[in-house]
Amino acid sequence: MRKIIFRWETALLLMLFVELAIFGLVNPRFLNLTNLIYGVSDFVQIGMVALPLTLVIIAGGIDVSFASVIGLAAIIFGVANYYGMPLPVCIAMALVTGSLCGLLNATVVHLSKIQPLVVTLGSLYLFQGAATVTSGLAGAGGYEGIGNFPDVFNAFGYAEFAGLPASLILFLSLAAILVILLHFTRFGRAVFLTGQSESAAHFAGIPVGRVQTITYVTTGLCAAIAGLALSAYFGSARVDLGSSTLLPAVTAAVLGGASIYGGQGSIIGTFIATFVIGYLHQGLQSAGVPSQISSALSGGLLVIAVALRHGAAMLADFIAVTRQQKAKRVAVLSGGE
Q: Which one, 15, 74, 256, 258, has the greatest CB density within 10 A?
């Protein structure tokens, strides 16, 4: 029971409840259950990329290109649909595109030995440019959208299953899969060991390159899924569909417990942090706060999360050293007697 109470996920849950209570006092309509459930559709794409991003960070990497992969995958889907390809083929092309983007990131990182942040920052602009050029194949210039999707595809954006939005069910399904993958499989243990020490992981026989590649490919694949979900929600595919997910998704992963130094993190923590960030933005909007301030608070939340995690680690080390020194003094005094 003590371990559960003092877990970071428990603190995040408490933070979420306090946040909902505060915004409920400011605007009682905010706590309407229907609004809370269907409001998830406005920020669920953040969680779709934050969850796999957690795997990348735990394994000792970082990927900021997912924001452009969302738009590129959506554009690929839109162009394929524009030229009359069957819906399953269009979806498959978008998913393959996202996976290949992740594979490209991993390959460049491993072959060049350049910092992942630098590589994925470059690919962020590369994929954005590729999406802009590709959109021209369907006659869409700049940030114009590509539409005229099949009705069955558009219907997914507003579909309901068991009283829940389809996008929320998709998010819950991704979370369940990644929880099992990270916390209950051999691959998940390899991800943690790789992030803690690549050299030690090598000596333990863990294929570090393969493990990290899978995390990048998973992120690209989930970014493509998010791009498809957003295209269905808005009824069009645009280059900038994922532009607003970059900072919130990174914040959700770090706030959820992922250490920027690798080796630590939790899918459940990122899952809860997604709701903390999403409802924070919606609560501020319901209170009449401008969106610019909401974005600034997201950046501040990221800095605070990193500082808290770093401070907690330093405090834990200090307590451990203090206990060791105390044990040594007790041992010396006992021996002297």
A: 74
